[in-house]
Amino acid sequence: MSDTLLKVRDLKIGATIYPPGEKPRDIEIVHGVSFDLAPGKVLGLIGESGAGKSTIGLASMAYGRGGVKITGGEVWVNGRDILKGGHKDIRRLRGAEVTYVSQSAAASFNPAKKIMDQVVEAAVEQKKFSRKEAEARARALFAKLGLPDPDNIGERYPHQVSGGQLQRCMTALALCPEPDLVVFDEPTTALDVTTQIDVLMAIKEAIRDTGVAALYITHDLAVVAQVSDDIMVLKMGNTVEYGHVDQIINNPQEEYTKALVSVRSIEHEEKAPTAEPVLSVRNITARYKGTQFDVLHNVNVDLYPGQTLAVVGESGSGKSTLARVITGLLPPREGEIEFAGRKLSPDLKGRSREDLRELQMIYQMADVAMNPRQTVGTIIGRPLEFYFGMRGAEKKKRIIELLDEIELGEKFIDRYPAELSGGQKQRVCIARSLAAKPKMIICDEVTSALDPLVADGILKLLLDLQKIEDVAYLFITHDLATVRAISDNIAVMYQGKVQRYGGKSKVLSPPFDDYTDLLLSSVPEMKLGWLEEVIAHRKMESAGN
Amino acid sequence: MSPIVKLLAQRIALSLLLLLLISIVIFAGTIVLPGDVAQSILGQSATPEALANLRAELGVNDPPVERYFAWLFGAMQGDLGTALTSGQDIAQALSSRFWNTLFLAFWAAVVAVPLAIFLGLLAVRFKDRWPDKMISAVTLASISIPEFLIGYVLMYFIAVQLRWFPSVAMINDSMSLFEKLNAIALPIAVLTLVVLAHMMRMTRAAILNVMQSAYIETAELKGLNAFQVIYRHAFPNAIAPIVNVVMLNLAYLVVGVVVIEVVFVYPGMGQYLVDHVSKRDVPVVQACGLIFAAVYIGLNMIADIVAILSNPRLRHPK
After folding, report:
1. A192 vs chain B: nearest CA distance in angstroms?
2. How confident is the model at residue A1 (pLDDT cuts 50, 70, 90)?
3. Interface-testing mutation among B6, B127, B209, B215, with chain A (most A C-beta atoms within 10 A)
4. Among B259, B258, B275, B254, which Cα is nearest to B83's?
5. How many whole angstroms separate alpha carbon A231 and alpha carbon A42?
6. CB-based contacts of B59, cutoff 8 Å, min separation 6
7. How many CB pairs under 8 A join A and B?
8. How many Cα atoms are found within 13 Å in the side-chain-facing hemisphere of B62?
9. How large is the ipTM?
10. A99 and B221 in contact by Cβ < 8 A?
11. Where on the phi/psi map is residue B90: left (φ > 0), alpha (ψ -120 to 50), or beta?
12. Which InterPro entries does the annotation name (chain B) (predicted)?
């Protein structure tokens, strides 16, 4: 065996795009990338969306998603250039020498088949192990990855286990055929932060114990710093910087890398409550129709004019349900909501147009929150017509003002959503909600689908607009860095209850309750060896108790 | 009770309710139809007294609600009444014809369903290449041509010119299975051509839809070949829509073969129905309508039951 397992030279990858109304044309999305990976080592590929990192990862299996084609360069695996092989050579490589762990295990497992059948399939099909051996291996891997009841979990169907467990099953699937290289494509991105840390540790230990090499793809530099030996920073299909993890994290050379490494640059001083609250949530208990248990238990929070209340929690904590109750989409079982000094009808139907105007919402997925067949001008102009009856020149003037406020400008007025980037789309959604001149905006995970640097820009914009328009934000998020950046008050939610509530400095300072401590300590830090420290610390604590 | 049992019970109850409603519609519909059965039996020269007597004898003067319930309870016990024109017992007259219709539909399905699914899989495997385009073109052409025309064209070439199969699909109880199949070969071919396109295209669309899923990529990255990916990972998740369209077509094979039965002079239910419609024999029309409705609802119910059973989330709850 050679001492390089994977050798990539001047890799070029292209795709055919189909612009509406134009002839299809070929574009290049990766422009000549080279790197080496030794057996048992981990290379982190990092970059924002569109950097080509997943595309490069899949190219090491000679695979192109959709219309993606490898157009040039060499990919050597175990001393063979896999791009020169035929279909059969490529099939023998996939699932045997190189395997893949995707971002969403929930989507990557076939819902109609048992987990065990899927985990052993590649190993058996590639004749690496007999079915019996492969099953024994799978059970051993389930145990090693910390899955509960490792002897029987394989008999379950994918929907019968949790998201974090399924992600570990996917790792077992990748390791089962005893590959030389595993491509991890954002394996923890879809997980809650407290789950991510366990899966990350399980993956790291599995890599160490099996001696397999890995390409670890992610947009989160703090995560990749915990598992990699080397890191390659990518931007728009080009290598920005490539070096040892220590050098990239502690001594980055390029501006782009420095921007990624520097933690959120936003500073926001906590404001003390001033006037009467604009929104008071009083003793809210709620459940969904046809279910038997409450998803919100006696929730009490206040939001003050011109301030930000961050509601933070993991999936299933009830934070989005709280938003549904406040907007009137889910009338609560008990409790009431006071808004701008008046009692709000629990049901959307009972609310006046004024109620609707003063309480706006911005969503996580800006793409689906806009009509793709309307121009930006129409989208922003609609609330102006609806609430204020504006027409013609007056309306256009106001639209342009709003476009200037969101830093896009007049030239965007005739564009369609498809012509905008993710960050620009979210800005248009912000302008649309501001057009109604609301007292309060509910922001539901508005930066979660965006790249970190773009998300930073959106948060800055929201803070600036808050100063100008004196609008209050109820900011729902799972991301603690975002919470730190923008909130005045924080409510930590866990299993439908407000676990901790108060001013930012109070909530984020010790002494903590157990859950808040777990949540805060699980957020990856841009520091080598952080993962081991946290795990060791937790083991010590649980031994001490 | 487990949710799946509840769901299935609901679905079956819904079917029964639907059948009951349809029985009302059929009964009401045949009552409001214009025309007088007594007149059509006795002819234009009948005296008013004779007509009145016959109407009283046939029970057409009783209140409709009373007649409906008498008819419904009779039908539930297998008594479909007697034909007005011939005085025959309808259930008896229908049963052999009904079995003939089912016999033809069954063999048409045996040929058409596997063929359609196989062609659908093949079209997916060679998507947008010439086999896919050819399959689509041929099946679309065959569904676009009226079925009686296909019937006569096949009859001319295969029965008349080549003399492979008989042109008239007469069967009776004394024939062996092979003789019967030989007799109905042409109608089977026509029916297959008629229902193939619909099922094949649905299979193709359902599987292509599933092929977009992330787990198909997982399967490809395991090094499986294209047929393994389609057969093992895509097909099991596409069963529900495929079964749905298959059942719709099976229902068509039973209910919609009237034209084909007439073209090939096949002694099935369709021809019997057409005969008695022209004679205004209301009880026969009602009986046929009820049976066709029951077949339609029953097959669609089976499709929904299969769809429910094929959903792993319902079969294996958390």
Report:
1. 21
2. very low
3. B215
4. B275
5. 9
6. B67
7. 77
8. 11
9. 0.77
10. yes
11. alpha
12. BPD_transp_1_N, MetI-like, MetI-like_sf
Which of B220, B222, B228 best tests the A interface by mutation, with the highest count of A CBs <10 A? B222
- Helix (H), strand (E) counts: chain B: 16, 0
Tell me whether residues B218 and A100 touch, CB distance under 8 A. Answer: yes
* Residue A388, phi-psi category: left (phi > 0), alpha (psi -120 to 50), beta (remainder): alpha
Stretch A480-489: mean pLDDT, rounded? Answer: 88
Residues of B in contact with A90 (CB under 8 A): 223
Single out the residue of A281, A277, A316 nearest to residue A299, CA to CA.
A281
Is the pLDDT at A325 greater than 50, yes or no? yes
* Cross-chain residue pair B233–A91, CB shorter than 8 Å: no
Amino acid at B52: A
**CA dist., res. B258 & res. B147, Å (int):** 11
User: How far away is chain A from the Cα of B146, in angstroms, using its nearest Cα?
Assistant: 38
Asked if A437 contacts A357 with a C-beta cutoff of 8 angstroms, the reply is yes
CA distance B5 to chain A (A): 18
Cis amide leading into A511 (omega within 30): yes
Digits of tens for pLDDT over chain B (318 positions)?
A: 577 888 889 989 999 999 999 988 888 887 776 666 677 667 777 778 877 887 777 666 777 788 788 878 888 877 777 777 777 777 787 888 888 888 888 888 889 889 998 898 888 888 888 888 888 888 888 888 887 888 888 878 877 777 787 777 777 777 777 777 777 888 888 888 888 888 888 888 888 888 888 899 999 999 898 888 988 898 888 888 888 888 888 888 887 777 888 888 788 888 788 888 877 777 888 888 888 888 889 988 988 888 888 888 888 877
Q: Do A99 and B237 touch (CB under 8 A)?
A: no
CB burial readout A16-44, b (16+ within 10 A) else e: eeeeeeeeeeeeebbbebebbbebebbbb
The answer for residues whose C-beta is within 8 angstroms of residue A513's C-beta and 6 or more apart is: A499, A500
Contact B222 A95 (CB under 8 A): yes
Residues of A with CB under 8 A from a CB of B: 61, 63, 65, 90-96, 99-100, 102, 104, 107-113, 118, 121-122, 125-126, 156-157, 159-160, 173
Which residues, other chains included, contact A140 with Cβ-Cβ below 8 Å and sequence gap of 6+?
A: A150
pLDDT in tens, A192-220: 888 888 888 888 888 888 889 999 999 88
Q: Which two tokens stand for residue A265?
A: 């640059």
Using a CB–CB cutoff of 8 Å, tell me whether B223 touches chain A.
yes
Would an 8 Å CB–CB cutoff place B236 in contact with chain A?
yes
Contact B309, A151 (CB under 8 A): no
Q: Do B222 and A122 touch (CB under 8 A)?
A: yes
- Interchain proximity B217–A126, CB inside 8 Å: no
- Measured between its terminal Cα atoms, the distance across chain A in Å is 49
Q: How far apart are CA B233 and CA B215, in angstroms?
A: 8
The continuous run of DSSP H or E covering A230 comes out as strand A230-235
Q: Is residue A81 within a helix (H) or strand (E), and if so which, with residue range?
A: strand A80-81
With vertex at residue A60, the alpha carbon angle to CA A530 and CA A175, rounded to the nearest 5 degrees, is 60
- For residue A186, give the nearest of A87, A100, A103, A281 by alpha carbon: A103
Q: Nearest-CA residue of chain B relative to A107?
A: B214
Are B236 and A112 an interchain contact pair (Cβ–Cβ within 8 Å)? yes
- Which residues contact residue B52 at a Cβ distance below 8 angstroms, ignoring those fewer than 6 apart? none
Contact (CB, 8 A) for B107 and B181: yes
Chain B neighbors of A187, CB-CB under 8 A: none
**CB-closest option in B217, B221, B313 to A159:** B313
CA distance B89 to B81: 6
